[in-house]
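On clarity, I found the account of how folds are encoded harder to follow than it need be. Since the whole study asks how a given chain folds, the encoding of that fold should be made plain. The format is easy to grasp once an entry is in front of the reader. For illustration, here is how one protein appears when written out as sequence plus structure tokens.
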Amino acid sequence: MTPSSWIATWAGLVAPGATVLDLAAGKGRHTSFFAGRGHRVTAVDRDVSALAASDTVEPIAADLEDGSPWPLAGRHFGAIVVTNYLHRPLFPDLFAALQPGGILLYETFMEGNERFGKPSRPEFLLKDGELLDLVRGRFSVTAYEARMISQPKMAMVQRIAARLL
């Protein structure tokens, strides 16, 4: 399981020993990547059967879209990683879970992706510049992209690496 090239490129922003939240972790490619870099990782997904608990990995099964309370209330992380997932109602809880100076690494699909397949519904696609708008005034942006990619498949994505002020 190869990590996203965006996440691998900007992972060095995450302080050594910082705790990492991998939200919508899926099969755990970023969980494994950050655990391998010496971080304690909390991996949240609806199905955590592919994620093995260990001294460095804490899997949490949670449906983030069913209206249940935020499963990490009161917890804070040195970095939050989200890829290929968008549920706008989570942004306030997500940002509140990041420690001051913590790193947000976010990458997901944007408008225009519908010509390449799924996701194609507007609720799953970022609007032009939406990630920048979400972090404006609260984060220092290290890197941002809104572009077409060809690997691992053709897609339109937005990506951001930012530090909470």
User: Anything to note?
Assistant: The first helix runs from residue 5 to 10. The chain has a mean pLDDT of 97. The CA atoms of residues 107 and 159 lie 4 Å apart.
